[in-house]
Amino acid sequence: MNENEEIRKIQFTGKSSYIISLPKNWINDLGLRKGDQIIIKKQHDTTLQLIPPKNSTYNIQNDDAVLEINNDDDNKSIIRKIISLYFIGFKTINIKPKFGIMKPAQRNLIKEAVKRMLIGTEIISDSTNDIVIQVLVDSLGLSIDNAFKRMVHLAKSMLMDVLLAIKEEANLDLANEVIKTDDEVDRFSFYIIRQLKIAIQSKSMLINMGFFNARNCLGYRVIAKNIERTGDHAVLIAKELIHFKKPIQKSIYHKIREMTEFALYLIDQSCLSLFKKDFNHADITMDNTLKITEYEKNVLNEINPITNNEEIYFIRKIIENIKRVAEYAGDIAEIVLNINIENVLKTNNK
After folding, report:
1. How far is CA 210 from the centre of its chain?
2. Rounded CA gap, 329 and 227, in Å?
3. Buried b (16+ CB within 10 A) or exposed e, 213-250
4. Model pLDDT for residues 166-199, shown as the tens digit of each residue
5. Among candidates 19, 12, 25, 11, which has minimal Cα distance to 38?
6. What is the value of pTM for the model shown?
7. What contacts 220, CB < 8 A, 6 or more positions away?
8. Three-state DSSP string of the chain
9. What is the pLDDT of residue 132?
10. Which residues are registered as beta bridge partners of 19?
11. Which of 16, 18, 110, 140 lies in the 20 to 30 Å Cα band around 147?
């Protein structure tokens, strides 16, 4: 008998029912509580199957949080506190003024931040006395892998758009759009972090999300941060363009574009190895990340004749940010290696 098996006696109660007890640690692992319902299914092979309701694994979440704020509290600090409560897993976040009433500016700030940054939330109460945020992510049906895919798509689009802004005679409107899109990337990052924090509290949640152990959640957390930073580097390039306000030479632009496309190819390949749980693919991707220096040299060779120090600085900042994106791809691939090394060992031992 293994650790997942128990022998329990069937007992008779009342006039027509039999009962059987379940181990306490099983109940805790499944996130169940007294009063929760269990589906009992009779199988054709004469066995019985116990199935917790799909939403039972979320009972481990905290229910309500109350956040009191002062009129002179720093706006960024308020938003960071709300995001932290979202991460932890609270279903309801009630924001109240510690004294008096909430200032209109604070109310608008909070509502805008919730709408812009937190996936699966709804403001169900809004007054001078409080703002109540209901978190509904559990009903979205958005898997972590799908959230990652959408996040990667957004981050890649930001980099390609900022290149287009550079090409189109310094399109500052497009550069500003890139900066705004960063909030969308952050939203998916926050959602993934919340789901991972919930998963590590329950074995059943780990299994439902496709993880074999809590250690994998840490890897996914770092990967989410790397993808988020990919978007951040697109923002940094956009801000440099807004400051520089001028286009660059076409020959240099083409070299920068080649470098960017290769960096994004590396991001694609590292994430593909993550979704496929493919150790060998990640291994190859790690080797390929070293080639980014060749693309960097190609750009640097093109800027040698330039004498304008401001233009040289702008181009160097672009390639510095793109190189960091390629390095993030290598970091993701390395995490994929660590997550899937045990699968390689099992294969080799067969």
Report:
1. 15
2. 9
3. eeebbebbbebbbbbbbbbbbbbbbbbbbeebeebbee
4. 987 779 999 999 999 999 999 999 999 988 888 8
5. 19
6. 0.75
7. 144, 148, 192, 196, 211
8. CCCCCCCCCCEEECCCEEECCCCHHHHHHCCCCCCCCCEEEECCCCCEEEECCHHHHHHHCCCEEEEEECCCCCHHHHHHHHHHHHHHCCCEEEEEECCCCCCHHHHHHHHHHHHHHCCCEEEEEECCCCEEEEECHHHCCCCHHHHHHHHHHHHHHHHHHHHHHHHCCCCHHHHHHHHHHHHHHHHHHHHHHHHHHHHCCCHHHHHHCCCCCHHHHHHHHHHHHHHHHHHHHHHHHHHHHHHHCCCCCHHHHHHHHHHHHHHHHHHHHHHHHHHHCCHHHHHHHHHHHCCHHHHHHHHHHHCCCCCCHHHHHHHHHHHHHHHHHHHHHHHHHHHHHHHHHHHHHHHHHC
9. 94
10. 11
11. 110
Q: Pull the structure tokens for residue 152.
A: 């990667």
Cα separation, 201 vs 88, whole angstroms:
11
What is the Cα Rg of the chain in Å?
26
pLDDT, tens digit (0-9, with 9 covering 90-100), for 311-345: 899 999 999 999 999 999 999 999 999 988 877 77
Token look-up 């703002």 returns 131
> Which carries the bigger pLDDT value, residue 349 or residue 195?
195
Contact indicator for 273, 333 with CB cutoff of 8 Å? yes
User: For residue 224, what are its two tokens?
Assistant: 């989410």
Angle between helices 144-167 and 250-276 (to 10 degrees): 180
Pair 121, 110: CB distance under 8 Å? no
Residue pair 133/93 in contact by the 8 Å Cβ criterion: yes
Sort 119 into a burial class: Cβ within 10 Å, 0-12 / 13-18 / 19+: buried
CB 57 within 8 Å of CB 38: no
What gap in Å lies between CA 50 and CA 52, rounded to an integer?
Answer: 7
Q: What are phi and psi of 13, to 5 degrees?
A: -140, 145
Question: Residues 245-280: pLDDT tens digits?
Answer: 888 888 999 999 999 999 999 999 999 999 999 999
| Token reading at 13 | 């109660």
